[in-house]
Amino acid sequence: MRKRKRRKLHKCACSICQQHPYSQVAQDHQAINRVLLSLNEKDRRRFAGVLAQQWGRGGIQRVIEITGLSRNTICRGQSEAQRVEGSSAEGRVRQPGGGRKPIEKNIPAWKTN
């Protein structure tokens, strides 16, 4: 059984949150990061992409500062949010075959001489 790695709440790096941590803007940024904690990786990308799209010019950089996600992740989320996907494998986030291989496959077979 695998342990789920618990994600931490990202601390916003924007100048407003740094100077005024109890302002309304800082509270909004914390709320965005709390929502991101509850989403899986695909939904996190899409949510960040939609936010960047709504904010228009400079939106990607703003989402990077608030969430700590990479530019590639946000751009990928924008493109995923724009296209309609059919339901692939139910309940799956990644494509089949993604992720790490089981440790048994990484250990070379013992050679007998």
Describe what you observe in this structure.
- The chain has 113 residues and is mainly α.
- The protein has a domain at 15-83.
- The chain has 6 helices and no strands.
- The chain has helices spanning 15-19, 24-38, 41-55, 59-67, 71-82, 103-106.
- Helix 3 packs across helix 4 (59-67).
- The longest helix has 15 residues, at 24-38.
Topology:
Layout: H1 15-19, H2 24-38, H3 41-55, H4 59-67, H5 71-82, H6 103-106
Helix pairs in contact: 3-4, 3-5
Give a quick set of tags describing it:
mainly alpha, 6 helices, 113 residues, globular
Encode the helix/strand succession as letters.
HHHHHH
How many strand units?
0
Q: What structural class do helix, strand and pairing data support? A: mainly alpha
Largest sheet: none
- How many helices in DSSP terms? 6
CA-CA gap between termini: 36 Å
Concise synopsis of the structure shown:
With 113 residues, the protein is mainly alpha-helical. The chain is built from six helices and no strands.
